[in-house]
From TrEMBL:
InterPro entries: URGCP (IPR057365), VLIG_GTPase (IPR052986). This is Up-regulator of cell proliferation-like domain-containing protein. It comes from Hucho hucho (huchen). Pfam families: URGCP. Residues 7-141 form the Up-regulator of cell proliferation-like domain.
Amino acid sequence: MEDQSVTEFAVPLLLPQGTGSQSTLMLWALRDILKEWRPHSLSESKGFEEGNIVLLQMRSISFVRLQACSMSKSQLLNHVLSNDQQNHNIFAHKDMDGGEAPRTISDGLVDTFWYLPCGNRNGDNFPEPLTVANLRGDICASVNV
């Protein structure tokens, strides 16, 4: 494992209701994802941990938007989750290429992203693994409030 963070993209975790009345939780589809990371507790030994991402116990943070806002929640999340040297488009947002495409099926979709530290105390935003869930669209519209 190299001593640098690897930033990837978010994947669907919860699909909104289609023509039926139930949403679809995608954990079974994500069951084969194996990852490795280096928590700060192992940074001196250069060791790392490896595990199945859906079975790993870690803190989880969820983000939703309540009605109209001039600032992009997903763009803000991308900035917070990226390291100081580069800003990555982890979550899709309106200012990225293709971000203005009509949302025909993505409103109500919950994307998830796993932040896995590399053991670099100066480069890691978080010292331990973290799950971030982001609701696409407005929560008021998603739950018919």
